[in-house]
Protein 1
Amino acid sequence: MPSANNASRGAPAESKATVPIGPGGPRGLRGGPVQKPKNFKGTVRRLWSYFGNEKRRLAAVFAFVLADSALTLLGPYLIGVAVDAIADTGGVDFKALDLALLALVAAYAADAGLTFFQGWLMAGISQRIVERLRSSLFAKLHKLPLAFFDTRSHGEVMSRLSNDIDNVSTTVSQTTAQLMSGLIAIAGSLVMMLALSPLLTLATLITVPLVFLLARTITKRTKRLFKEQQAQLGALNGHIEETISGMLAVKAFNREDKAIEQFDGLNAKLAETGTRAQIWSGFLMPLLGVINNIGFAAVALAGGTLAVRGHITVGVIASFLSYSRQFVRPLNDIASMYNTLQAGIAGAERVFEVMEQEEEAEDVRGAAVLQGAKGHVVFDNVSFGYRPEVPIVSNLSFEVPAGSSIALVGPTGAGKTTIVNLLTRFYEATGGRILIDGKDIREYTRDSLRRAFGVVLQDTYLFSGTIADNIRYGRPEATDAEVKAAAAAARADAFIRRLPLGYQTPISENGSNLSQGQKQLLAIARVMLANPSILVLDEATSSIDTRTELQIQAALLDAMKGRTAFIIAHRLSTIRDADRILVIERGRIAEAGTHDELVRKEGGVYARMVASQFKPVRARAN
């Protein structure tokens, strides 16, 4: 049962928004600045473990890449043969020319086929790996304690399931084969160039340091600019989200012009930074092209000189120019793949950070199954704190007889919700023990323990599906008649029947097509259908009008008969009939007793709360 206010525990608010960024600059796959992994080798090794049976298919991809690279290296050689056949001093050697051209066409056709099968295999490999990774992460999230979600924003967790895994998918599908092909092409081209002419090879290699120096100089500057751009983009997105979410308040206070003014200022800063980033990143590819062209010119000049002196033929020069292009192009591709690879490994690392989180404690060996719980609850000197140095509950002891109701009241942050979170083992007590029917709750299986509880939260969450689907969420096997009976008991049947499709009415995102009160009525019906042994009502009627509240209270009184009930409420009118009331202050019991007993305590905490809540309001004289 998550607390209603995560912000009080320091949960970070994070906005994950990205837009495409122009070519040439350091960027992640989803448009953000490149985030470098902290442990590149360790993450790669762990990601490799997810390949499983795909390793055989990956070996087939490598064989295709090897064959494809061999055909690619054969092409320039055949071009040189064809050129020499034409440039033969004795005339054109048509037989050699025909054979060279035929072999060239066959090589390019085979190359196209191998490239297709290579891409087809890699697409399947990457999708199956990512499917396993995504399934593992989603399953892991269900095993984590609520403390994990209380300290992270929902957007941050969801980005790991979507953006980060998408980065991994793109990296595996594109970078793996390209990296293998690039490395083989570089090595093969270098060998062929050395075989043709070591002097021309030297002329080609002179440009390599210039390429890396230029790339390093440009990316060092653009990295800072893109990082600044992402920060300003986050500020702009935050303003947009805040304005749209609070549009009612914006209009009510006539703040439209001010909101537009703030947007224009943030938008202008983003445009200015983005322009500088794009200009600098745009320098990279043209300047690389200039360096490469200088290298080709040097090869042509040196080759022409050697050809005139009779050291090499014109065909060798033609082949060498093609090989030099094949040598330089993979270098450029690897430089551009670097950011893709970094983003993918960083995404995998973020996924593995979640996978390494400590899960909820496993059931103890021989744990009992809680069936037909009577509901006798004992808190025995229980302590708990989200952080050891800041206790929320301290040495708490009380007893709730089976079938009785107990109300927890007190100021916000006193520890009321934490108490029921400990009871349901959403959090584990750091001291003391909690007993149900005479046995420590840690000696029950967690599944059977939670099945004994029915929980109605202040903030009701409804899932996609129909109204009937949401009511039977805790009992999927329930019949339509049982669903309608539970809705009637919760006083929800009347408004459901007024809807166009009744119980088959689809629920929009988190029930946005229903009022808060209607959603809470459905939550109460959901719990009634589950028929639990112990009820937990955390501000269960806070969003319901007074008339409906009286009806719900009557329904809840019927539901609580024969069941243990924990009631948390700020409106004291909802808890005055509880068998016992605990006033919680700073994680301790300040007062305990029935409503009448506590009201009679002059100067008592509960008495002051009742007096302030029911104090008559004096009308001002005009």
Protein 2
Amino acid sequence: MTFSVHGLAVSRGVAIGRAVLVASSRADVDHYFIEAEKTGAEITRMRTSRNAVVEEIVRLQQDLPTDAPHEISALLDVHLMLLQDEVLISGVKHWITERHYNAEWALTTQYEIIARQFDEMEDQYLRERKADLEQVVERILRHMKGAASPMQSASQCAVRAGSSRKQSQQDLLLDDTLDVPLVLIAHDISPADMLQFKQSLFTGFATDVGGKTSHTAIVARSLDIPAVVGARSASQLIKQDDWVIIDGDAGVLIVDPSPIILAEYGFRQRQGELERQRLNRLKHTPAVTLDGQRIDLLANIEMPDDTLGAVEASAVGVGLFRTEFLFMGRGSKLPNEDEQYLAYRKAIDGMQGLPVTIRTVDIGADKPLDRPVGKAFDTNLNPALGLRAIRWSLADPPMFLTQLRAILRAAAHGQVNLLVPMLAHGHEIRQTIELINQARAQLDARGVAYGPVRLGAMIEIPAAALTVPLFLKYFDFLSIGTNDLIQYTLAIDRADELVAHLYDPCHPAVLRLIADTIAECNAQGKSISVCGEMAGDVTMTRLLLGLGLRSFSMHPSQILAVKQQILRADTAKLKLWAQEVLQSENPGEML
């Protein structure tokens, strides 16, 4: 009987095939106590498995094909960092030596402790790094059991599925050969396992967990594979060898579809292929509207290597370089000035002379930094309203000055914009500028070269959007972070599933704040961009153009689709329509 499973659409396209299921290694972990004299051997067993995973990932990096997406290498670096994280390692040793847990039990226990810290994070990108930690733990557990990797297991299942599949009415609509199309259904898939995806039989995948900014989603987009994540119990509801349609545009899995539905999605699949071919022809076409307005399409990146994808997608610069990855999973050892400088310079060099906007660290008291093992960490009842982003930076001047010096030094090698997140008060603005000047003075005293930067602020708090003229007295440009602006305007925790349906980018109040911010910047001749999810949403492109936006920053994979909308738009005609949308009680119905 046909049924559907809903998740998050993270990578466009349609995949149709037989389901190949991969189970989670944590589902059947043994729990038992060991004798005191065996704790050393148990720690060695865990360390041996951990080292084997490290060697495996290093080997994967060395053997990466030249055409492998750059995101995969960067994400493998993150997994290596997590594998060597002192908080994870010392925590496992603690549970083995103090509680006499077996190694598997100790590892999963420490995972749950660190995972809870990730769950409390407000920043969606950082919160979804929990999936990377889980994938690392899964790989260690598999080595302890001597089991194959998920992709190896899946490939074995795929062979069985291809050889034992049932003849059915649906088979008649597809190529009934041993090369039957297959889709992968799993609790989660790590970037390392996905290395084999392009060489496998799988045409798409779906996972129980994950979000739009999870590494699984990022890699799926870079490989251009239809994917749905966060589908909850998909791996339990779907049975091995079921026919499944993965709708990566709508975020839906259709299980055991009827012949009519199969035919419809088969048509959509062919249309999608043609559309991708058409979009690729736009790579070298300037983003100019029908009435001659030039639009800047910029890229959001998380790591220096992401610049390769940005250039390939024809981005005219980086509109948002999130620097949080440098600070993640390091325990009490934060990145020093030289390490940060080299990372920022790598991104600048990668953009080949195009501008790079570097956002100062957006992290806070709710993030897993400096958490001693075994010590209860302070919890914040409202982490979204606590010591995060610029508030955290201003509360730790030495850390902030280190980052500012690194960014200023990197600016000597190219065009750099320095972007400050979550400002709301005049005294925060003045204190930030004072510290930037102090960082310059420190570099002068050391005789170290640095370059000029354009200074910008993120508008992501309603208070900031309502006092834009104050911001424009101090800043060269503004960037609207729509994800947080929506959250704070509507008092919605976008991570809370009970109220997530109220998270509405088209709420009249949200649109009014965005419209007024754009209008004020245009009136004063200051640059303004949107760098939240709204920028890459093609359903919002025409409205933002009509409101006067001329700079969009998004994931590189979204650039060509947005460019297509721009090439078809007439901003003169859209301006009047956009004002009608702002006056509507239900703006979303007009898009």
